[in-house]
Amino acid sequence: MKPRFWITLITLLLLGLVVALGWGEIARAWKILGRVDLWILALMIPVQILSYYATGEVIFAYLRSKGCLEAAPWWLTPRVALELNFVHHVMPSAGVAGFSYLGWVLSHYGVSAGKATMAQIVQLALTFISYTLILMIALVVLIFDRAVNRTIIATSATLVVIIVASVALLIYATSDRKRLVALAGWITRTVNPVVSVLTRHKQAEVLKLGVVEGFFKELNQDYREIRDDRGLLLRPFLISIVVNCLDISLLLIAFRSLGFWVNPAIVVIAFGLSSILGIASATPGGAGVYETAMIVFLAGAGVAPDAAIAGTLLARVILLFGTILFGYLFYQLRISGYGKGLGLNRQDRDEREGRRR
What we know:
It is globular and about 60 Å long. The chain has 15 helices and no strands. The chain is about 80% helix and about 0% strand. Helix 5 runs antiparallel to helix 6 (about 95-105) and helix 7 packs across helix 10 (about 210-230). The chain is mostly helical. It has a domain at about 35-170 and about 230-345.
């Protein structure tokens, strides 16, 4: 069985254990939710909107540096980010569905599949790297505050190792053209026979080797351009720092609305741990896994268990509600109209393509 299955299974077992052993704390947390300060909680709305805008802007800033989507309206950025977030939450595919979806959306507006994929790889890598920077700052703050224990040190070290390994893997995967061409051949030889059998030989060649090779060669070309001009990533990197800060702020607002002050440095570490485990889980959007990891770590770091439960659940319910509700709305509009209203028509794209030529 896949590692994601075991991660999810173990986490769900831990969730059951937490519920069984902490039922009294859960009951107190439920009572705590009744004293929410709605004025403070309302701050989550503009912060979440800004978070979606910044998340999309990391992708779009990179694409604009490549000469794509130069005439895109500002509201396209949060909309696409919201749609992507919705896809990630409803399809347990560890981000694969998001890569396919964004490629499909942007293909209608002159962005190739290779560039759309590289934009998401850049977004993922920069989000990890900028989070590591914030994590190091949080750890220094805790050291000076003398609030560092073995749990915090071990978790921080684990997160750094995972992030460094993930970024190194992304670089390795896109840095060698020969390796990518060989991968294209392997994918083609593997997928086509399987699809042929599943369709009873009605579709013998669903993937064409030349097309797949072209896709991977474009990925490699974009990697080489980034390597030769790292300035392309400066603006996306700075925005990715803002993204992480906004996402962490959403948790802090939820706790503060309940009357609790939680050390932001501890929340930084809990956020990273929960996010990575959520990505690795087999449940849509990391549901159950994210919450369990957050609650267990916060409680282990000294936060009152009832406060950890109440604050985590409050934040997650509100964030998921916004993501599912508005994400579903925009997603349905997108797939029913192929992105109409995006602000970019074919004439605009043709004119820009002519200027670039």
